[in-house]
Specification:
The chain is an all-alpha fold and 431 residues long. It has two domains: 330 residues, Na+/H+ antiporter like domain (Na+/H+ antiporter like fold), CATH 1.20.1530.10; 42 residues. It contains 17 helices and two strands. Strands 1-2 form a two-stranded antiparallel ribbon. Strand 1 and strand 2 form a beta hairpin. The longest helix is centred in the N-terminal third of the chain and has 33 residues. The two termini are 30 Å apart.
Length: 431
Amino acid sequence: MIVSSLLSIKKFIKLESLGGIILILSTIAAVIWANSTYADVYHNLWHNINLGFTVGDFELKGNIHHWINDGLMAIFFFTIGLEIKREIIGGELSTMKKASLPIIAAIGGMIVPAIFYSLTNITSSEYINGWGIPMATDIAFALGLLAMLGDRVNINIRIFLTALAIADDLGAILVIAIFYTESINYAELINAAIFLIILLTANKLGVRKTTFYAIVGLVGVWISFLFSGVHATIAGVLIAFTIPARPKINENIFISKIGQKIKEFQKTIKNNNSLLTHKQSHLISDIDKLADDASTPLQNLEHFLHPIATFFILPLFALANAGIHVEGNILEMIFHPISLGIIIGLVLGKAIGISGFVYLARMLKISTLPEGINMRQIIGAGMMAGIGFTMSIFIADLAFTNPEYVQIAKIGIFTASIIAAVIGMIILSKK
């Protein structure tokens, strides 16, 4: 079981690392495109092409940028929700011993950056709303860069950083839901709650069809959130927590029944050609059914959606959101209070918050460091967590309505992520 869990984590990290590299390339492409002679094409593509439909008085329309940020990112957050639920049930967050260190580190990595940003912008009521921007960690970007260091980085530091980022994601989701929500339409939230209760009831009654959860989740929960004022991506996380995480049959029953089916298959009379006999075909269908009963809808969905989120949704989000058209003095934008607060928060706040809270957890004997890990590596991991990027950009778009402030925030996010990445890789590359 432990070996299987470790292999699963390694596979996850490898996938995230490759996704991180694609994310980096998408970001570079967006910046070059937005500052080229085709900058108008870039802006028009994302902001001036509207898609949607109208049915009677009901209208659901938006530009491509809107559909990516409120639609595709809801699927991304749904995938995060599945990962969080899996980790809580049987992963790195399943026991207090496993979960305590990354959770404590994540709390430090959210509180301290927010404080640093707020102190930098305390005199401006316009700027202060960006306090949530440096709280986020982009795990795909961080693991993509760590992949370049190869075996020089202990596998346990990657597991720690992954678990920390998952806990961090949960914190970011709560921050978005509570603090970055516009005027709330409570009638729509009640509708969403009713549909969530339907999904939870279906889970309890043993409904395992993912299409049922998809239809009710999309039509009921997501659309209700879309019109509620609470960001629609929160719906993705809530729907994920309703997905069944139990197999229909346990391992022993599966092993026993699959053994019987294989024996029956071996005894069947074979055709003289490549086609299966009628009985063989039925036996294979029975084996497929047994495999489906022995797996969980949650894990099946996660395995299906994770590559889509990693290789399609996040790179597309980066392409649509990272294209900053730089106008004016870039140094002035970097040293603007918004940008400076983000840089201090992500670079210093993350490293100090994560390593400081880990140190306190050790001193108070709440947690112990993973095997083969020392405090220098924890500081390095804390620095890598300062790569906010996609999540920080996402929160920046929610925090500010002024496009100039959003642009300045993105400059700060870029600058901070580059600094954090360089310092973090230098620290972690040393044996």
